[in-house]
Design a protein that fits this description.
Helices cover about 65% and strands about 10% of the residues. It has about 700 residues and is an alpha+beta fold. The protein has four domains: about 210 residues; about 70 residues; about 140 residues, 2-Layer Sandwich (Beta-Lactamase), CATH 3.30.450.40; about 160 residues, Histidine kinase-like ATPase, C-terminal domain (Heat Shock Protein 90), CATH 3.30.565. The strands form three sheets. It has a five-stranded antiparallel beta sheet with strand order 2-1-5-4-3, with helices on both faces.
Length: about 700
């Protein structure tokens, strides 16, 4: 055991000497940096003297003196961090520091008195217990009061120093109880001290005012961690062997030796397992070091690359952006269709043949079950890494396909990026895979969004077509109504010359309206084709509309002065008036008349269409009356007549308003600007001014 302790303290002194030299090379001038260097050299000297004591066998009091100095330096360092001191003067001027120094002096005095006069080590051990407990309390306060970022930086230091202090506290507590040290603990202190150095070194890198220029290799931390795990495992084996020997059976010594041999074989098997070593390496890289990729910059680069997309092909733009960011020689996107097969969506430098597409289709189920990037080069060297994957990878690699990255949207596989090898050394590691997943997830969202926008555009086109069809159908319905009036009155008025004239006028009007419908269908426009505006005498137009309307019941009465003119599209004006009057007739009983009144107010024409029908609720007027495709007529109406009427009057600088009450009736009010028949305004380009 003495040899084991000698090796442990010797290794610890070497480790802390390296730690001290690294800190010295950083040339950090802050108080924390200075105290850390002093702590490092104190740890080195204490371990070296402990090693020399085991070799020479001199008194442990010399070692205890250095141990006391080490605890003093440690407490001053933690106090400096807690109090945020920038100099020794500021640190020693603090009341907490002075109280601590007074307590140290009192403990040293009590220990010296106990040793000289009573030949007892109890007070010495109690003093070291206090020297171990005090910095533990300070460490807890520092960690608890630190912010999240500061906790990330300081927790390795707290863990490393805290482990050493807890071990010392337990050892000295046992010594105080039995008035002597348990040298089994003493021999193991060197190994524990050496094992905790990487954690102290890691915090010295993370905390800027300790050592901002200090570099810690990932391999150093990896191998140190392996040593720590191995040491912990060996301690566990030793404890188990001690339990076996404690049984004091006849075969206890042989069993303990066999157990140790078996445990060492298991340790060597674990350390030689590549998968275990890879897991440790990834864990250390993820939790102790910054990422290889600056995701903020890479995100901006990807967005810029997408924005620089030259064409409208979203798949080509996505692959070009990915190729630019990863410095690829070729990239294609394969989209998953409804029958679980992949289809190439862009034509780049990679052109998989029939055999390659069959291999890629066979990967769909694997990607649906395993969210894992396939590196074909890695699969060639170690296929056991990809569980349950059977792939003729040479077929794909012969066509320069080296990496396959699945793309998911809402946790469903949507496609696969097939690419050449990125500009990285060797196979993809965990950082490359995380980075690829981040890029392709963003591009998958981009593609899904663009697809949704494309489908929305198509839906809007269909909506425009259906809306145009509704307007056309509405016009055809009105034309059919006009022609239907002819056939209805033909039997009674066939011999009437005036009726014959009206028939020809109606047919001519219907023909002109049909021509407009045909032109609108040919232009594929939702908007009405506008005819040139003309001067319209209001009373004569109203008389023609009322004449047609009075072919149905209830009858319409008209009151309007002559000589009022408006400048508008005569056919559309008559059409919207006819629709409003028909609505009033349909809402009224046959024995109640509909009133159409026109009057002049200043330079405005006021038309009112009133009925005594069923009326409308205010909610219907507010939410549905002027909304297209909303109607109270069921399948008999299209629900666009009132909407078209309001749109027409707004185009002609007019207003359409409604006042209605359920069970009482409805009044539509139209306001339009009047124009003087002798004075028509023109602008500088010779065009007639409408408003």
């Amino acid at each position: 055991m003495e040899l084991l302790g000698l090796i442990g303290y010797g290794f610890s002194s070497l480790i802390y000497l390296i730690f001290f030299l690294l800190l010295l090379a950083s040339r950090q001038q802050s108080l924390a940096g200075t105290l850390t260097r002093l702590l490092g050299i104190t740890f080195c000297l204490a371990s070296l003297v402990s090693c020399w004591q085991l070799y020479q066998g001199f008194s442990l009091l010399y070692v205890f003196g250095l141990e006391a100095l080490k605890n003093l330096m440690l407490s001053l360092l933690v106090l400096g961090i807690k109090l945020r001191s920038e100099s020794l003067r500021h640190l020693f001027s603090q009341r907490e520091t002075r109280n601590y120094l007074l307590a140290v002096v009192a403990l040293i005095t009590a220990a010296a008195f106990s040793l000289v006069y009573r030949q007892s080590f109890v007070w010495l051990f109690i003093g070291f217990m206090a020297l171990s407990l005090w910095p533990l309390v300070l460490l807890e306060q520092v960690f608890r009061n630190a912010q999240n970022r500061a906790r990330w930086a300081v927790w390795p230091f707290v863990f490393g120093i805290g482990s050493i202090l807890v071990f010392d506290f337990v050892m000295y507590a046992q010594g105080a109880l039995i008035n002597q040290l348990d040298f089994n603990f003493w021999y193991l202190r060197g190994y524990l001290s050496a094992a905790m150095m990487p954690f102290i070194l890691l915090s010295s890198k993370r905390i800027k005012n300790w050592s901002s220029d200090l570099f810690v290799s990932r391999d150093i931390v990896f191998y140190s961690s392996i040593l720590v795990l191995s040491g912990g495992y060996l301690l566990l084996l030793a404890f188990a062997g001690y339990i076996i020997r404690f049984l004091e059976g006849q075969w206890s010594e042989m069993l303990s030796i066999a157990f140790m041999c078996l445990g060492l074989l298991v340790l060597f098997a674990i350390l030689l397992t590549q998968n275990f070593r890879n897991r440790i390496r990834v864990f250390i890289s993820k939790h102790f070091f910054a990422n290889r990729y600056d995701y903020r910059l890479e995100w901006l680069n990807l967005i810029s690359a997408i924005e620089r997309g030259a064409g409208d092909d979203i798949y080509e733009n996505a692959c070009a952006a990915l190729a630019e960011v990863l410095q690829l020689d070729g990239c294609i996107y394969l989209q998953l269709n409804n029958i679980n097969r992949l289809a190439v969506m862009n034509h780049g430098q990679l052109k998989p043949g029939t055999a390659s597409m069959q291999e890629l289709d066979g990967l769909v189920r694997y990607f649906q079950q395993q969210s894992w990037i396939i590196d074909l080069g890695e699969y060639d060297k170690s296929p056991q890494t990809y569980q349950d994957l059977k792939l003729q990878h040479h077929t794909l690699r012969n066509e320069n396909i080296e990496v396959l990255v699945p793309v998911y949207f809402q946790q469903q596989l949507t496609g696969v990026f097939a690419m050449t090898r990125p500009a990285t050394k060797g196979f993809l590691n965990w950082e490359d895979r995380d980075f690829l997943f981040a890029l392709t997830k963003q591009l998958g969202n981009y593609l899904s969004l663009q697809e949704a926008q494309r489908q929305l555009a198509q839906t809007q086109q269909f909506a425009v077509f259906h809306r145009m069809s509704a307007f056309v159908l509405h016009d055809l319905k009105n034309i059919q109504a006009q022609l239907g009036l002819i056939t209805t009155n033909a039997e009674r008025h066939r011999e009437n010359p005036e009726f014959i004239n009206d028939v020809f006028a109606t047919v001519n009007s219907a023909s002109m309206r049909l021509q407009k419908v045909v032109r609108q269908l040919a232009s594929k426009s939702m908007e009405k084709i506008k005819e040139p505006n003309q001067q319209v005498e209001v009373k004569s137009l109203l008389e023609q509309v009322v004449k047609l309307a009075n072919m149905h019941t209830p009858q319409v009465s008209l009151r309007c002065p002559a000589g009022l003119y408006v400048f508008t599209d005569k056919e559309r004006f008559a059409g919207v008036l006819m629709h409003l009057i028909e609505n009033a007739q349909q809402a009224s009983d046959s024995n109640k008349k509909v009133q159409l009144v026109g009057e002049k107010q200043e330079n405005r024409l006021i038309l009112t269409i009133s009925d005594k029908g069923c009326g409308m609720s205010q909610e219907f007027i507010r939410e549905k009356l002027f909304t297209p495709f909303s109607t109270t007529k069921g399948n008999a109406g299209m629900g666009i007549g009132v909407y078209e009427a309001r749109q027409f009057f707004e185009e002609n600088c007019g207003v359409l308003s409604v006042d209605s009450e359920v069970g009482t009736g409805t009044t539509f009010t139209i306001e339009m600007s009047l124009s003087n028949y002798q004075e028509i305004g023109y602008n500088n380009h010779g065009k007639i001014i409408n408003c």
